[in-house]
Every structure is written in C-alpha cells, then in structure tokens.
Amino acid sequence: MTLANATPSDPKIGNNVELKQTRLGQYVHLGDDAVFEEVEVGDYSYTAGHNQIHYATIGKFVSIATYVRINPGNHPTYQRIAQHHFTYRSSAYGLGEDDNDFFNWRREHAVTVGHDVWIGHNAVIMPGVTVGNGAVIGSSAVVTKDVEPFSIVAGVAAKKIGMRFEDSLIERIERSQWWNWSHETLQERMPEFRDLDSFVEKYL
Ligand SMILES: CC(C)(COP(=O)(O)OP(=O)(O)OC[C@H]1O[C@@H](n2cnc3c(N)ncnc32)[C@H](O)[C@@H]1OP(=O)(O)O)[C@@H](O)C(=O)NCCC(=O)NCCS
C-alpha cells in the first residue's frame, strides 16, 4: 500500500514504531517511539507515544496515553541464580540458543484490556492483568490486579477510587455493546455520543 491509496480507516503509524507480530484494527493510531510485540489492537484504539506493549489484547476505542507500559517482563527473580537476561537472551551474548520456555511464560501471562478503557500517562499494567470495559487507569498507576469494568483505579499499587456510573447504567451500557456498532452508526449517533442523557434515553 502506498500513501496515495491509503484510506482513513487504515492504521496511522508514527515514527520509530516497531511492530512484532502485531495486528492492528481499523482507524488505529499509534504515536511515535513505541514497541508492540504480539499485540492485537482493536478498531479506533490509539496510543499517544513512547509506549511498550507486549503480549496483550487491546479492545476497541482504547485510549493509551504517553509512556504507558503494558506487560513489562519479569526477570527470573526466584527461579534462577542470575536475574540478568543472558540466561534467556543467550544468543545475543554468544552463549547458546535463546531459552524459549522463558518467553513462553510471558506469552502465557498476557494482558487483556477491554473496550473504551482510558489508560493515563505513565501507567504500568503488570503481566496477567485483565482490565474491564470502560475502566479508567489513573496517571502513573501500577496495576497489579484485575480492574473491574467501569471502575476508576489509581496509585501504586492501583486501588479502586470510584466508579464512573451506577451499576444499573453499567449493565445497560455493557448490554448495548456500542463499541461493536458500525462506522456509519457511530457517525449517525454522534449527537447522542456527545450527550449522556440523550444517549441513555435513546439507545440503552
Ligand atoms: C484517575 C483520574 C481520572 C481521577 O479523576 P477523578 O475521578 O476526577 O478523581 P479526583 O481528582 O476526584 O480524585 C479522587 C482521589 O483520587 C486521587 N487521585 C486522582 N488521580 C490519582 C492518580 N493518578 N494517582 C493517585 N491518586 C490519584 C486524588 O488525590 C483523590 O484522593 P483523595 O480522595 O484522597 O483526595 C485522574 O486523576 C487521572 O489520573 N487522569 C489521567 C490523566 C492523564 O494521564 N491523561 C493523559 C492524557 S489522555
């Protein structure tokens, strides 16, 4: 594909972005200076830049601020004498083949982020965590446990500081699954997307 025949739904990828075995949905925008490794990014989701995201499934309409890191690798703290990566990235040091079992552990502890999640600047989401739909992760949070849908978490380690909506509304939003509506429907219903009450009245 050349820029000349790119369509608006094609992913927009910034400068110095490394994509390793990564799948990008429609209207995905990736900011500069980032690494994505074995990541699936859902439609309309964006990253603002300076991100490192490994072994993760990111839903649709997810907003990821600058310097967010998802699934940083743990070194073998308890399992091996040496924590340094020469015991698994061995080939880089002329010390034999890389240790695939170690990388498989990381793969098995993938992170899942739901739809319409907002992840604040500099947050870190640890291996194996699931973040529910509609959740908010505060700036600089370190998320070590699963995050309830539509909750707001912050701090190190992140704790729930509130909910976006009351339970009955959350249930109705989840049932609507608006994040699966077509592009044309989104466009048509933009006035209601800009006004909570009329959205609730018309579509929930
Ligand atoms: C998490 C966030 C959305 C909370 O907003 P809010 O619901 O309006 O919460 P409040 O500002 O009323 O704060 C509630 C409490 O949480 C604390 N808090 C808020 N954000 C926090 C954060 N990121 N880390 C730690 N504590 C935080 C407040 O100090 C307050 O504590 P208190 O009850 O002891 O006084 C917001 O603070 C935040 O972090 N936004 C992310 C901004 C960002 O990174 N943008 C990137 C560009 S898109």
Automatic annotation (TrEMBL):
<dbReference type="InterPro" id="IPR001451">
    <property type="entry name" value="Hexapep"/>
</dbReference>
<keyword id="KW-0012">Acyltransferase</keyword>
<dbReference type="InterPro" id="IPR018357">
    <property type="entry name" value="Hexapep_transf_CS"/>
</dbReference>
<comment type="similarity">
    <text>Belongs to the transferase hexapeptide repeat family.</text>
</comment>
<keyword id="KW-0808">Transferase</keyword>
<dbReference type="InterPro" id="IPR017694">
    <property type="entry name" value="Phosphonate_tfrase_rpt"/>
</dbReference>
<keyword id="KW-0677">Repeat</keyword>
<protein>
    <submittedName>
        <fullName>Acetyltransferase</fullName>
    </submittedName>
</protein>
<dbReference type="InterPro" id="IPR011004">
    <property type="entry name" value="Trimer_LpxA-like_sf"/>
</dbReference>
<dbReference type="Pfam" id="PF00132">
    <property type="entry name" value="Hexapep"/>
</dbReference>
<dbReference type="InterPro" id="IPR050179">
    <property type="entry name" value="Trans_hexapeptide_repeat"/>
</dbReference>
<dbReference type="GO" id="GO:0016747">
    <property type="term" value="F:acyltransferase activity, transferring groups other than amino-acyl groups"/>
</dbReference>
